[in-house]
Amino acid sequence: MSTKNSTTTTIPPQPPSAAGKLNGEPPADHERCPVEEVALVVPETDDPTLPVMTFRAWFLGPTSCTLLIFLDTFFIYRTQPLTISAILMRIAVLPIEKFMAATLPKKNYTLFGRWGVSLNPGPFNIKEHVIITVMANCGVSIGGGDAYSVGAITVMKAYYKQSLNFLCALLLVLTTQYRTSGDMKRTILL
C-alpha cells in the first residue's frame, strides 16, 4: 500500500479591503496612526469614489494661490508687514466651493472627442478641499517668502531709480525661481 505524502499549506490572512473599511470595519493596529492627535482627527478610511482633480479644484486652487501671492507681496512693503495665512485662504474659499457646487452645470462635456469632463461632478468633498489647500499653500510667504528677485527689482526702482519693463522683470522672476528648483532636483531625487 502506497501513501502519498500530502503537505498542507496555510494561506496567510489577507488585509481588509478598502470596501470592507468603508462598511465600518475597524482598521488593524498596524494601520492606525501612532500620533494620537492625528488619529483622532484624520479618518482612517478612504473613499476612492470621491473625485479629486475636478474643474472646481483646478479653478480655485491656482486662483487662491495667485491671490495669496499677490496679497502677501503687496503687504510686504508696509512698515509692519501683514501676512495672510493659508488658513484664512482656506476659510475664505469654502463658501466659494459650496457656491460652485450648487450653481455649476452637471452636464458632461467631451474634450477632443475622447475625454468626458463634468464641471460639477457632485457635492463638494473633503478631497477637493484638501487639494485646493495644498495648491494655496504654494502662495504662503511665511515659509519661503516671495521670490528673491522681487526684492532685487524693488531695490533697483527705489534706490537706483532704474526700472525694468514687465516682460524682463517676469523673466527674471521665473528664471531665478526655476534655477532654485533645478538646484534642488539632485538633492530631492537622491
UniProtKB/TrEMBL annotation:
One of its GO terms (biological process) is protein transport. Pfam families: OPT. It comes from the Eukaryota. Its main location: membrane. It is found in: Membrane. GO terms for molecular function: oligopeptide transmembrane transporter activity. The keyword Transmembrane helix applies. This is Oligopeptide transporter 3. It comes from Nicotiana attenuata. The gene is OPT3_0.
